[in-house]
Fold this sequence. Notes:
By secondary structure, chain A is of the alpha/beta class.
Amino acid sequence: MTKLRSDETVTMQSVAVAAGVSPMTVSNTFRYPERVQEETRQRVLKIAAELGYIPNHAAGNLASGQSRVIGAVIPSIKNSSFYNYVRGMQDHVATEGYQLILKLADTLSQEASAIRTFVGLRVAGIALVGDEHESDVKTLLRKTGVPVVESWVHENPFDMAVGYSTSDATRVITELLIERGYRRIGFVGYQGDVSSRFTERVPTFKQSMEKAGLDSYRIFLVDQADGFGAGPKALEGLCAIDPDLDAIVCPTDIVAAGVLFECGRRGWKVPERLAIAGWGDYEIASEITPGLTTVQPHSYEMGQRAMSLIIERAAGSGATGMMVDTGFHIVKRASA
Amino acid sequence: MTKLRSDETVTMQSVAVAAGVSPMTVSNTFRYPERVQEETRQRVLKIAAELGYIPNHAAGNLASGQSRVIGAVIPSIKNSSFYNYVRGMQDHVATEGYQLILKLADTLSQEASAIRTFVGLRVAGIALVGDEHESDVKTLLRKTGVPVVESWVHENPFDMAVGYSTSDATRVITELLIERGYRRIGFVGYQGDVSSRFTERVPTFKQSMEKAGLDSYRIFLVDQADGFGAGPKALEGLCAIDPDLDAIVCPTDIVAAGVLFECGRRGWKVPERLAIAGWGDYEIASEITPGLTTVQPHSYEMGQRAMSLIIERAAGSGATGMMVDTGFHIVKRASA
DNA sequence: TCGGCGTTTTGTAGCGCTACAATATTCTGT
DNA sequence: ACAGAATATTGTAGCGCTACAAAACGCCGA
C-alpha cells in the first residue's frame, strides 16, 4: 500500500531535492551528523520533519549490512518475572540509539520461529532466555554470526551470556530455611520440558539437605502452565508424601502465592504451620500477607548487560564467550 | 558483521546456483509455491535448508514494498492483562503466515518512538492499545497509510478499532452491586494522564448510582503505577470519605486484590463487611479467596480480530473505519 | 594571487530481493 | 504430428539507502 501512490512516498531523495542537497548529505545527516555542516544539517532536519520523512530501515539495512534493531525472545508475559528484564533491556538500548523488538515464545519451536524472523530481519543481535534451543537454529545462528546473548544462563554460553547461578540461589535459600529451624522441607519443581534454570535446582536442593543431615525426598513436580493453580496441587502432593511438612520451596512467587492462598483456605498459619519460600521477587511477593521470602535475581541489570554485550559486539569490540554474572540476593520477609 | 565474509553469506543467488535454477525460481518457491513445479520446489527447498538460507526480509520488503511483519505496541507487561491479547494476536498471525513483533511503551512518547520504529521497518500493519496518541505520529501514520488498529477502543477509530464498551461494563457491574443490595458503593479510578478506557468509567458510575437513587460521591483516584499497593491506598481514601463503605469497584483485579489483602490485614470479611469488584479477570481473580467478581473482556478475541483487520487490509480487502465490538461478560465470584 | 590543506558535499555502484513481461517448456485435442 | 493453450522458468530493472572515492569548497600563508 505504501507503493500505491509512489509520488506521495517521502524518500531520502525527495528530502534531498526539497533541501537542495544530495541524497548522501541527507543520509549523513542522520547517520553521521558530525560530517555535515551545522547549518546544512538543520535545514535537512527541518525539511525532513516537515515532510514527515522516516528513513526506510529495510533499505538502510540492506545497503549497509548493519542494523540498529535488536531482537529479544521472551518466554512469556503471563507473569511479571520478565518485566524488569525487558525494562532493563529497553532502557539500555535507548541510551545507545538502538531499538528493541520483542517476540514471545513459550516453546522451543516458537523460539526457533522467532529467531528465524529476527535473522530474516537482519537484526544487530538477538537476546534469548535460557540455554536450550533447537539445534537447527543453533547451526543457523553460528553460520550467520549474529551476536547472541543468553540470559538467566550461568555457564557454557552458546555465544555470550548473562545470568546468575540458580544453583547457588537454591543452596542459599535452602540453607536459610534450615538455619531457621525447618526440618521437613519440601521442594516444588517444574515437570516436563522446562529450562535448565529450573531443573538444575533439584540436585542442589537434595545436596543442601543432605549436607545438613536432613531427608531430601520431599519433592513434587507441577506443570509450569498452572500458574497460581500449581500451589494447591503442590501442597497436596507434598502432604501426600509427608503430612507433617513444615516448609516449602517454590519455583516462583506465583506458585508460592498459590500455596499461601491454599494455606488460607485450610486455615494453616504461615509460617507457623508452614513456611513458604518463593522465587523471583514479583510484585505480589511484597503485597500479600505474610510477605514472601524470595530470591531476587537482578533482572533489570541482566537486561541492561545483555544489551551492552550485544551492542559492544555490534560495534566491533567485545568477544564471543563473554559471561556476566549479575548475582542475586535473598529478600527476607515473614513467610519463612 | 554479516558482511565481513561476503563469500559465506547465503543469498538467494547462491541457492539458485546450487540448485541450478534462476533466482526468480527460488524467490517464487518461497513466496508463491504454487507457481513452481513440485519437483523443482522440493529441490530448491532442500538446497536452501542445507545451505541454511534465510530470506533477507529487508531486501524483500524493499523490493516488493510489502511486509509480512506486523508490529504491536503494548503498554506494559507488568501484569497479565495483555497476555491473552498478545496470545490472540500471535495465534492469529501464525495461521496467516505473518509474524508479530512487539514493543513495550508505558507512555505516549514511548509509544510514539515505537511507532516510528515500526514505520521505519515498514511493517504491514500496526496494533495500538487505546485511542490516545501523539498528534505527530497520527499525522505520520495518516501519511504513510499503514493499516492501524486500536484495541480496547470502542468508538471513533483513528483507522480501525476493536474493543468493547468500558462504559457498558461499568454500568453492568455497578448495577450488579446495587441489585445485590449494596448501597454505599465506592469507585476507584486512575489519576493522571491515563487512557480514556479508564476515564470514561467515572461518569458512567455516577450515572448508574444516581439512576438507582444512590449517592455517587464515593470516588477515589490512585496512581496507575502502584499495582497491588494501590489497593490499601484506595481503601483508606474511600474510608476517609465514608467509613461505612460497603462495596468497592476497582479499575483492575490487581487493585482489587490489593484491597482484598488489606481487608485481610484489617480483619474485614469479604463480602460481608466489604464487597469487591475487579476488572480484567486476571489469573489472580480466580485464585485468591474469595474469588473476585470481575469484568472479563474478551482479550484473546480482541487480539485475533485486531490482526485479522490488519491482514485483510494488507491483503487489499477491508476498509478504513472498521470497528469490531468483541463484548465482555461479568464473572460472578464470591467477592461481590 | 595562488598552491596546498582540511572540510564539506556529491557521483557511482550495488546491497538482496521481487514485479513484470518475455521466453521456454509441457500438455491438449484433432 | 502440430497449432494453440496452459504451465513453468527466466531476464531485466529498480526498490531506498549507504560505502567509498572523487570532487568542490573554503581558508591559510607566502
